[in-house]
């Protein structure tokens, strides 16, 4: 500890803190303008200067001066007051002082500071210059005449967002902030808006909608990706007017500008019943009664196994838990699955194959937690854990890694907060990034090595890395206790580095260099996402990367973990609460006694249910055991599952389908009963983020006409004779959490598995499939990918803010390919596969290698999965439409 | 969203195919280098004379930068342009020294002759008229530069002559000129031995043999083959050498902080961004004896354990860079640079970089930012560059003249060197006597010569019929002293005690025809122009100091102006982030001390006692 005095007060501080931080901790007021706790010291405003002895004769900025033993600090003196007053005047001379119409009024740091320092007069007048206000940029408005040139926006955009879209321009008195000679063309995350101490950057969706003091604030978790950001929702008159992250300020574009989708005109407000092929509005009683009656008929006729349930990665843990309970306790079957089967579940199964399903010991029931969403299970000192959950990393810990290998993933669109973490890590001198992707992505900029491989060859890339490493280090011993290395080597015997290099298209030397970086790393992390999991052999891809991690992972080093990305807000949660045909809540086996208690008096079925793809196959084959009824907790299967025409045809074979959704999706249109649900701020419950963080969604708005998922499930259950009665989601959480030892210690904003487990990961090498052929002869490989501005199809409804930035999908292709096809940007192209065709506008992108084209999957038109078969990769032909 | 623009050069109205090709070619030359952006922009500007948006987009995409990084950096530097300009850029020097010697009249004349306002381009696209904060041609003031060529001692006749030469397509090639301003051997030299400028004007700077014949690179050989790096540092410590850039920090001590750090790589940087008004000394060394500077830099690299050095030379010094680059190439060919120098284990490369018109980049942390291809924003200190410098690695930054001292120190020993000059500032120093003296000049002498001798003996005293009024010591940020200081020996300590500063060793002499308000307005204009804009006090304060002096010089001063100036001065001095802002008010504070009545005459009586300011 460091001993110092501030204004004569003896203070002890940890070393490495700044004087400003220590003063704040001790309630000593030091004014500042450019400092922000989320940023590294900038030191430009100089308002926080304090006198420091020993030190130079000049005062020093408290924000950038670190505590030292024996320091005597004075924060208030006539000299300091004079400096601060003078600086404030200098800032105010050129400040627009249009506070009555400035959106920042009421929460403006300059206003507060002027008041706090009592600067009543400026006694100077500057020649007014015509302000170069930017009204043109989308979502963000810039008012240079209000700017105090503190540099916060430049720093957050560069150091945290990594977009570097905003920078100082010119110099001296004429220094201003700008985006070069063009309007903003950035990620449109708006983090610059919220870090701005004044109104120089304005959120267009909030402009003139409320004064800061008029809003009501509530905390909730963001629903637009698996990042699990907790943010504050500001409402006025029952309307959300904006969302902000009061901690790190950071949110992505969807997070910050996506909320207007709440008021989308096409949202469902009343239940719908299909009669003679057309929907009519119905009241809740009628719709629920009808759904229950039809389900009952099918159960009576074909048995309980004839009803199949699909949970939702957008619904809360509580709703999903209740949903699987509906089937397990109500119907006595395991006929449930969730759409992550087509990507994230493949990762879980691969990880389980190598590291085992999670098992924990030493979690015991403790006193009833004070928080509604905290697990009553606590960890004893003997708490131990093994299985794959203990090799998964958290976003917070990622910057502790010294190397990250990102494979087949454009990080920011899939999980923006992971992108921020990579940026944070990149600021460290000893951090190295390897980006492996068929196309150029944002983080190639930060990468020590970029590996461009042929689409779909991820497994061979992993094999090449493994072989190169083992060739250079024949006596390599994995740090994680591992079995089967010799057999594994044998299985890879024929896969030479040279051949892997040739088949992936990656330079052999680069492959070896990357392998050596992995070998030298003290804390390597491996990151991958939906883009490689969504291939037909996505599970094999995950297996290959898990093998690679088993080889190089350093379980003792924080940050050295696997980071499979769970795409949606509750993709990980829907799996962990047991919406899987072969796993109970807490990922426990069907034989778990602990989990069995929650289904009492019904004993859980020992027979696993069908997976969602199996259901589709059975239906297609008109199999005897094909389910007759489908109960879906949302999810537009037509849009998300590969081979759209087949999905559509197969779903039409169902005798009955009931869908809970916020919108009348193409899938919902096939249903017999559609039940409108509440969405994020309209319902309470929890989400489990991609990195295992528990986020609490709070009910901020009163839903109009719609019901929360859990209530609908409960009411349907009651009608079918199952008692699923709860006082609310918290009661559901308190029922499920005790049955899930994996979630012991879970609490809002904390991660599971909790830090208190003594983790003992161990693994077994599993050989993986080395065949990467992509069928067909068409000349281009299409990757169905993700857009940065969209979260599934949720954000594609007007007036979602991000539609201003990305209103639709375009077929992206290399300029050379476009030239060969006689296509120019904006032209309409017909994309044809053996399974269907779509028409899409053309966008040129040299980020793609020639021969590879990209289409985002979020939109109904063009519907990318019209083209696919069983993978997000497909061979296509392209022609001018 | 695409963080990067198109990755290829698409021909547009501004960019024909050959332009695209040359742009791609130069980008591939620079890609992957530290701070590739600035050299790329400088080379790209040569293609069209400016860098249009299309070019910026290609550069951004190819260097993996954003458009705002490219434009943010280029708009910081006054020598980079994004609007079309003429074939010849005329830069009229507006530094205090040139101002005293008639730069304003020169600028008026040029506007008349060219028929364009300041910043304008002639209709025939031949000339663009600009000003420069300081060209570094003070000994021949008033001066201007046409593209790379400097023209000094300008008279109206000479200006017309130069213009007609260019109109006739007869502008000289700067590389063929013997020197950029004048022959060092014209100047009166101090008695005794010369250590720094001894070769200047006597050897062919493009001929390594000449340097070798006069003992060149023997010090490097001695250091590398018979001394440990630690021993080199000890020798330099013993010599008492203090940095010649202006701050006077002991060189050996600076090195000793960096040497023991385990980090790798380390860098050495030769600070050749000689921008301090009145200062031209480094240019004489670089133009006249470039190998000496290079030898010093390699010795410094060896001492601190750096395998890579940079020379950051100011943008306006074209001839210096031409000769330095030549010297680097020759040294590489002869094995004084490259791998395993002189058969030892020590390897070293040196890269020449150019500034682009920014005085603050002479500040070492701003220089490092600029080397990294960014805006020249000074960094917060600590950490100092010796610990965290170029790309976060330990970096020693030394001035050109400092490095030029090293061969003599190594060859003849620190103890011998310490005996030269004064105990406060041992050694030889290059002085410059500038402004309103009969013979402005550069000379080398041991420290300790008096200010009076410098002015009288070497500067030739003030011009006939004039009396000495004041001297600005050490550069634009130095304080003013009067005749009372003439007996002061020239070294760091003595000048400070006398209320002045040695700074870069330049002394700007002003006679009774100079108005202190007019002079301070010119100094204020310099700082307002060169403030980087990062910290509030300097960004705003420097502009307000200029504003107040502008109105005082027009007789529009207001009550309270003097108090306001004093408040501003304190704010800048106490609260600015870097030495530029901290020292910008120094001349004004000293002027208020010595010449308050003259300033008040402008304010209260609306008169200019020197008859310079026009109150219409």
A few lines on this structure:
The complex is a heterodimer of chains A (881) and B (616). Chain A has 881 residues and is of the alpha/beta class.
Task: Provide structural commentary.
The complex is a heterodimer of chains A (881) and B (616). With 881 residues, chain A is of the alpha/beta class. Chain A folds into 5 domains: 2-76, Roll (Ubiquitin-like (UB roll)), CATH 3.10.20; 126-263, Alpha-Beta Plaits; 272-365 and 569-759, Rossmann fold (3-Layer(aba) Sandwich), CATH 3.40.50.740; 399-560, Dimethylsulfoxide Reductase, domain 2 (3-Layer(aba) Sandwich), CATH 3.40.228; 780-880, Barwin-like endoglucanases (Beta Barrel), CATH 2.40.40.20. Helices cover 26% and strands 20% of the residues of chain A. Chain A has a 7-stranded mixed sheet with strand order 14-13-29-28-27-15-16, with helices on one face. A 6-stranded mixed barrel of chain A has the order 34-38-35-37-36-39. In chain A, strand 1 (2-6) and strand 2 (9-13) form a beta hairpin. Chain A is globular and about 90 Å long. The relative contact order of chain A is 0.12. The model of chain A has no long low-confidence stretch (mean pLDDT 95). Chain B is α/β, with parallel strands linked by helices. Chain B folds into 5 domains: 17-76; 88-172, 3-Layer(aba) Sandwich (Glutaredoxin), CATH 3.40.30.10; 208-418, 3-Layer(aba) Sandwich (Rossmann fold); 428-511, Ubiquitin-like (UB roll) (Roll), CATH 3.10.20.600; 516-605, de novo design (two linked rop proteins), CATH 1.20.1440.230. Chain B has a 5-stranded mixed sheet. The longest helix of chain B has 20 residues, at 586-605. Residues 1-10 of chain B have low confidence and may be disordered. The interface between A and B is large, with 61 and 55 residues.
Estimated share of beta-strand residues of chain B: 5-15%
Poorly predicted runs of chain B are 1-10
- What average pLDDT do the residues of chain B reach? 95
Overall pLDDT of chain A? 95
Q: Label the CATH architecture of the largest domain in chain A.
A: 3-Layer(aba) Sandwich
Going by helix content, strand content and strand pairing, the class of chain A is alpha/beta
What number of structural domains do the residues of chain A give? 5
């Amino acid at each position: 500890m460091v001993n110092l005095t501030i204004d004569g007060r003896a203070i002890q501080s940890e070393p490495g803190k700044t004087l400003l931080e220590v003063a704040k901790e001790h309630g000593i007021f030091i004014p500042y303008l450019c400092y922000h706790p989320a940023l590294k010291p900038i030191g430009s405003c100089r308002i926080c200067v304090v006198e420091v002895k020993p030190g130079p004769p000049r005062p020093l900025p408290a924000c950038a001066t670190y505590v030292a033993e024996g320091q005597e600090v004075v924060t208030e003196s006539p000299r300091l007051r004079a400096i601060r007053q003078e600086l404030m005047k200098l800032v105010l001379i050129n400040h627009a002082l249009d506070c009555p119409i400035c959106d920042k009024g009421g929460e403006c740091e300059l206003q507060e500071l002027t008041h706090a320092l009592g600067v009543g007069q400026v006694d100077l007048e500057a020649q007014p210059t015509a302000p170069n206000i930017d009204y043109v940029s989308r979502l963000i408005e810039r008012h240079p005449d209000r700017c105090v040139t503190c540099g916060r926006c430049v720093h957050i955009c560069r150091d945290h967002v990594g977009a570097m879209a905003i920078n100082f321009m010119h110099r001296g008195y004429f220094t201003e902030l700008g985006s070069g000679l063009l309007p903003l063309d950035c990620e449109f995350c708006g983090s610059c808006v919220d870090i701005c101490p004044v109104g120089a950057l304005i959120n267009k969706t909030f402009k003139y909608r409320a004064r800061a003091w008029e809003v009501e604030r509530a905390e909730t978790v963001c629903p637009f990706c698996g990042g699990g950001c907790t943010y504050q929702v500001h409402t006025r008159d029952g309307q959300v007017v904006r969302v902000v992250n009061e901690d790190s300020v950071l949110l992505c574009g969807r997070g910050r500008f996506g909320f207007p989708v709440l008021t989308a005109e096409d949202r469902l407000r009343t239940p719908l019943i299909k009669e003679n092929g057309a929907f009519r509005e119905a009241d809740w009683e009628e719709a629920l009664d009808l759904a229950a009656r039809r389900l009952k008929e099918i159960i009576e006729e074909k048995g309980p196994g004839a009803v199949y349930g699909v949970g939702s990665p957008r619904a809360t843990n509580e709703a999903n838990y209740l949903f699987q309970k509906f089937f397990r306790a109500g119907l006595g079957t395991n006929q449930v699955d969730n759409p992550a089967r087509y990507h994230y579940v493949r990762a879980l199964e691969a990880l389980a194959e190598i590291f085992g399903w999670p098992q924990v010991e030493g979690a015991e029931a403790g006193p009833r937690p004070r928080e509604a969403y905290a697990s009553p299970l606590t960890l004893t000192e003997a708490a131990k854990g093994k299985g794959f959950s203990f090799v998964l990393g958290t976003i917070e810990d990622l910057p502790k890694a010294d190397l990250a290998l990102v494979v087949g993933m454009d990080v920011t669109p899939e999980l923006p907060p992971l992108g921020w973490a990579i940026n944070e890590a990149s600021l460290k001198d000893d951090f190295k990034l390897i980006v492996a992707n068929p196309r150029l992505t944002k983080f190639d900029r930060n990468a020590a090595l970029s590996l461009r491989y042929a689409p779909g060859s991820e497994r061979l890339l992993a094999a090449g890395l493994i072989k190169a490493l083992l060739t250079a280090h024949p006596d390599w011993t994995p740090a994680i206790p591992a079995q089967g290395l010799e057999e594994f080597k044998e299985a890879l015997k024929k896969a030479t580095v040279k051949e892997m290099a040739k088949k992936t298209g990656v330079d052999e030397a680069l492959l070896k260099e990357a392998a050596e970086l992995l070998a030298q790393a003290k804390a390597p992390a491996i990151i991958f996402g939906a883009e490689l999991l969504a291939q037909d052999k996505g599970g094999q891809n995950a297996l290959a990367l898990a093998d690679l991690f088993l080889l190089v992972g350093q379980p003792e080093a924080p940050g050295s973990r696997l980071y499979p990305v769970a795409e949606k807000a509750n993709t990980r949660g829907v799996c962990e609460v047991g919406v899987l045909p072969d796993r109970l809540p807490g990922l426990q086996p069907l034989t778990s006694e602990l989990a069995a208690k929650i289904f009492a008096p019904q004993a859980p079925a020992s027979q696993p249910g069908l997976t969602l793809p199996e259901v589709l196959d059975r239906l297609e084959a008109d199999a005897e055991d094909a389910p007759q009824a489908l109960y879906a907790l949302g999810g537009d299967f037509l849009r998300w599952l590969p081979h759209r025409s087949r999905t559509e045809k197969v779903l039409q074979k169902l005798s009955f389908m009931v869908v809970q959704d916020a919108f009348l999706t193409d899938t919902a249109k096939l249903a017999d009963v559609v039940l409108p649900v509440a969405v994020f701020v309209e319902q309470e419950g929890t989400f489990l983020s991609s990195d295992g963080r528990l986020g609490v969604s709070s009910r901020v708005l009163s839903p109009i006409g719609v019901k929360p998922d859990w209530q609908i499930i409960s009411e349907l259950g009651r009608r079918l004779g199952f008692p699923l009665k709860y006082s609310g989601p918290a009661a559901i959480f308190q029922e499920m959490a005790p049955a899930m030892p994996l979630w012991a210690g879970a609490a809002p904003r904390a991660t599971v598995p909790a830090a208190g487990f003594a983790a003992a990961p161990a693994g077994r090498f599993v050989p993986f499939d080395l065949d990467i052929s992509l069928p067909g002869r068409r000349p281009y490989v299409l990757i169905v990918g993700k857009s940065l501005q969209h979260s599934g199809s949720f954000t594609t409804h007007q007036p979602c803010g991000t539609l201003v930035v990305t209103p639709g999908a375009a077929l992206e292709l290399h300029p050379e390919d476009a030239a060969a096809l006689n296509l120019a940007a904006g032209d309409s192209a017909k994309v044809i596969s053996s399974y269907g065709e779509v028409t899409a506008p053309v966008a040129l992108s040299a980020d793609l290698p020639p021969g590879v084209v990209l289409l985002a999957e979020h939109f109904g038109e063009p519907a990318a999965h019209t083209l696919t078969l069983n993978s997000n990769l497909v061979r296509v032909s392209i022609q001018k439409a | 969203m695409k963080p990067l623009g198109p990755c290829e050069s698409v021909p547009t109205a501004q960019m024909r195919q050959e332009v695209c090709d040359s742009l791609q070619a130069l980008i591939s030359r620079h890609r992957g280098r530290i701070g590739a952006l600035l050299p790329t922009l400088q080379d790209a500007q040569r293609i069209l004379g400016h860098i249009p948006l299309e070019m910026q987009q290609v550069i951004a995409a190819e260097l993996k930068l954003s458009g705002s990084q490219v434009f943010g950096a280029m708009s910081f530097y006054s020598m980079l342009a994004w609007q079309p300009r003429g074939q010849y850029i005329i830069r009229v020097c507006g530094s205090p020294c040139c101002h005293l010697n008639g730069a304003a009249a020169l600028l008026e004349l040029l506007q008349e002759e060219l028929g364009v306002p300041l910043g304008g381009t002639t209709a025939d696209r031949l000339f663009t008229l600009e000003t420069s904060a300081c060209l570094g041609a003070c000994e021949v003031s008033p001066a201007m530069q046409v593209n790379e060529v400097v023209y000094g001692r300008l008279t109206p006749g000479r200006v017309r002559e130069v213009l007609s030469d260019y109109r006739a397509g007869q502008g000289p090639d700067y590389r063929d000129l013997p020197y950029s301003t004048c022959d060092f051997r014209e100047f009166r030299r101090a008695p005794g031995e010369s250590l720094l400028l001894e070769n200047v004007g006597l050897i062919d700077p493009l001929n390594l043999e000449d340097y070798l014949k006069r003992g060149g690179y023997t010090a490097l050989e001695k250091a590398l083959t018979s001394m440990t790096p630690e021993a080199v540092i000890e020798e330099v410590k013993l010599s008492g050498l203090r940095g010649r850039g202006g701050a006077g920090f002991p060189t050996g001590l600076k090195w000793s902080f960096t040497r023991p750090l385990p980090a790798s790589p380390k860098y050495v940087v030769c600070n050749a961004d000689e921008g301090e008004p009145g200062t031209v000394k480094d240019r004489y060394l670089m133009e006249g004896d470039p190998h000496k500077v290079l030898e010093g830099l390699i010795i410094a690299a060896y001492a601190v354990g750096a395998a890579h050095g940079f020379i950051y030379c100011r943008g306006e010094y074209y001839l210096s860079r031409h000769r330095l680059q030549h010297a680097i190439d020759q040294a590489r060919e002869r094995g004084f640079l490259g791998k395993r120098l002189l058969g030892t284990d020590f390897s070293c490369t040196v890269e020449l970089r150019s500034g682009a018109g920014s005085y603050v980049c002479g500040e070492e942390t701003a220089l490092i930012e600029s080397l990294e291809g960014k805006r020249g924003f000074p960094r917060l200190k600590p950490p100092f560059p010796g610990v965290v410098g170029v790309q976060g690695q330990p970096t020693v930054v030394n001035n050109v003249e400092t490095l030029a001292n090293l061969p003599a120190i190594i060859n003849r020993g620190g103890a011998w060197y310490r005996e030269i000059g004064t105990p406060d500032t041992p050694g030889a120093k290059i002085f410059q006597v500038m402004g309103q003296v009969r013979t402005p000049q550069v000379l080398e002498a041991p420290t300790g010569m008096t200010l009076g001798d410098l002015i009288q003996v070497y500067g030739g005293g003030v011009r006939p019929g004039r009396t000495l009024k004041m001297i600005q010591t050490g550069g634009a940020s130095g304080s003013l002293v009067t005749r009372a200081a003439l007996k002061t020996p020239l070294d760091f300590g003595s000048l400070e005690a006398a209320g002045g500063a040695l700074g870069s060793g330049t002394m700007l002499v002003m006679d009774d025809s100079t108005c202190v308000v007019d002079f301070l307005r010119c100094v204020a204009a310099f700082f307002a122009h060169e403030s980087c804009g990062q910290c509030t006090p300097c960004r705003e304060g420097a502009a307000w100091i200029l504003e107040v002096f502008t109105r005082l010089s027009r007789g529009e001063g207001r009550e309270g102006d003097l108090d306001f100036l004093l408040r501003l001065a304190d704010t800048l001095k106490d609260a600015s982030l870097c030495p530029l802002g901290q020292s910008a008010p120094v001349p004004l504070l000293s002027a208020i001390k010595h010449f308050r009545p003259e300033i008040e005459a402008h304010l209260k009586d609306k008169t200019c006692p020197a008859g310079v300011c026009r109150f219409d």
